[in-house]
Amino acid sequence: MVGLSCGENHFIQGGIAQDLRCDGRKRLAYRPISVETGVIPQANGSARVRMGATDVIASVKCRLNFESQACCNLIKEKSRYILTAVQLQSQLLRSHSIGFRGRGGDELAAELSIALQRCLLGGKSGTAVVLMLVFFFSGAGINLSSLIVVERKICWDLYIDGLVVSSDGNLLDALGAAIKAALSNTGIPRVQVAAETSNNEQPEVDVSDEEFLQFDTAGIPVIVTLTKVGRHYIVDATSEEESQLSSAVSISANRQGNICGMTKRGGVGLDPSIILDMISAAKHVSDQVINKLDSEIASAEAEEES
Amino acid sequence: MADKGGATPATYSPSPTTGRKKPPLLKEDWIRPDGRGFHQCRPALLDMHRFLSDSKCSRIDGALLIGGSAKRHLGPVSTRITSGVHGSVQPDIDFFRTGAVNAASGSAYAEIGNTKVIVSVFGPRESKKAMIYSDIGRLNCNVSFTTFATPVRGQGSDHKEYSTMLHKALEGAIILETFPKTTVDVFALVLESSGSHTSRCLGFGKRSQLEIMLCEALLLIDSMFLCNVPLQEVIASDNISECVSGDLPVVISCASLALADAGIMMYDLVASVSVSCFSKNLVIDPILEEENCQDGSLMITCMPSRYEITQLTVTGEWSTPKINEGMQLCLDACAKLAKIMRSCLKEAASDSQE
């Protein structure tokens, strides 16, 4: 992956210009996506997504939050806090292209976290905690009110972690898909609250081990990264193709066709008309991806149960 | 646990000056807290002065002392007109100034609304971090907040991602091949913050007859602001008001001014604006209260002369036509901002020749 020769660069660019990429795909075709759910028993929800050689795992853990202030924030300002963190294996990054080498794993992880936060769940960011891998943000794709246990008193905190096991380009899309799968796999334990507690005391809670609430994840968007190589854009770039990128725009779109987040990477400037073009291409592609991903998730869950 | 916005701080901190009541966002007659129209940015005054060798101390604002350099207050290059409830017009001023820091190769100070940022550029110089040979230069960005920048002490250190975003915004504009093997360091210090990521944005939109009149007046009065979007078109659009909120756009614009001051070769000046969306309205240049209630935001960093966007971030849910309008408004605003920045640089250059 490091150091492609001039000839190889030309080959990749020429292939893209002729709608035939190195592995035979068209420009707007994804690699086969395979989804497994429930890979981490200790987590409330987890999923592993493979796109070609890119392999990522996402896990969701819940925790009861008794701080009334945070719960109040949820109701008043729509700002429930869901943490997302991305971890990258450090040796993985040594072999990345030159752009990453200088900045190291931490920066890439932070960038991915922000992009995920922005694209998947929308809203403003809050604090960054120590490791620079963890960010707070508010949810747009998830029905946040399902996280409330007792209004203004108790709610669930969701911690979403992503781990990149192997990277062959297009990390953001894979992580987005993994998080979507993990969230659909997540079961929040049902909580019984002892009635008749005064306002100042902490209510007694009984967290059940048996019953679980599932999220409705139909509203969660998928992330589509369009990489511009030369004059054309491709979807789901491998790391060789990513080394050729002049710029890349990651767009997350949901079922209704609305754009939930957008980030641009790469230094080269883009004409606004190109960006609008990319948005329409992304929406077109995202329809197919959402359907594919949903069916994959459904079959993975069915397999897991059986 | 992280300190969430709205949490009661443990120590006293001054409360924001605007009233506690949240503006009724969805009502038709919503007046913005500082009386601006939806499509009015806080005005930008670009004031250029060069560091001169005499030792007069002068102050820009309050406790800020930019040591040792004489300052000349030039007249405002452009002002934004704000409308009070009864249609009175009061100008509101921002600052841009270069040559603020003696030790740096180039520097700039920008003050837009309540956000005050000072950026210093060092380089091209040797860097210990870069061990490998590279035939293009390196750009190293760092954005930090002073501890007194935010109402709650230390809140600004939450925004560690600003350094990366500043880097991404600038790397497309700098011609890195002109300084191989060396590094350019950009250090941005936010002295006073007015939000999480605000940019100034100029645009025109219609909410009321009064605002149309004001916009037209602004068009006539201020020839610097050449609005590319015809007023009728914007009026017909579905209530787009952009909010410029936050510090990041100010930081980016100020940084590109500092780079120009340092003489680093760039393709074009980088101007940055952000927009917030409140259900059906887009508001330019939002202040902190407006930003807290927003549904989504769009920040654009672009090079206006080349009409290229170097960085674009969208949060929240947007439909394509709205993104379209938002982008158009931002681009217009960036074009105006770049004109102001350019005129500042020119004045500073002509000052130094005298």
TrEMBL record, chain A:
Q: Which organism is it from?
A: Flemingia macrophylla
Family from the record: Belongs to the RNase PH family.
What is a single Pfam family found in this protein's UniProt entry?
RNase_PH_C
Q: Does the keyword Transferase apply?
A: no
- Protein's recorded name: Ribosomal RNA-processing protein 42
The record lists the membrane-crossing segments as 128-150
User: Where does the Exoribonuclease phosphorolytic domain start and stop, copy by copy?
Assistant: 30-189, 219-283
- Principal subcellular localisation of the protein: cytoplasm
Which InterPro entries does its entry note? ExoRNase_PH_dom1, ExoRNase_PH_dom2, ExoRNase_PH_dom2_sf, Exosome_comp_Rrp42_subfam, PNPase/RNase_PH_dom_sf, Ribosomal_Su5_D2-typ_SF
Coiled-coil segments:
none
State its location(s). Cytoplasm; Nucleus, Nucleolus
The residues the entry assigns to the signal sequence are none
Entry keyword Signal: no
| GO CC annotations on file | cytoplasm; exosome (RNase complex); nucleolus
| UniProt keyword terms in alphabetical order | Cytoplasm, Exosome, Membrane, Transmembrane, Transmembrane helix
Output the PANTHER family linked to this UniProt entry: EXOSOME COMPLEX COMPONENT RRP42, EXOSOME COMPLEX EXONUCLEASE RIBOSOMAL RNA PROCESSING PROTEIN
From TrEMBL, chain B:
**Signal peptide, first to last residue:** none
Q: Where is the Exoribonuclease phosphorolytic domain?
A: 96-264, 268-328
Its GO biological process annotations read: rRNA processing
Q: What is its main location?
A: cytoplasm
**Keyword set for this entry?**
Cytoplasm, Exosome, Nucleus, RNA-binding, rRNA processing
Q: Where is this region: Disordered?
A: 1-28
Q: A Gene Ontology CC term for this entry? A: nucleus
Q: Which GO terms describe its molecular function?
A: RNA binding
Q: Where is the composition biased (Low complexity)?
A: 7-18
Residue stretches in coiled coil:
none
Compartmental location: Cytoplasm; Nucleus
- What family is this protein classified in? Belongs to the RNase PH family.
Write down what this protein is called: Exosome complex component RRP41-like
Q: Which organism is it from?
A: Flemingia macrophylla
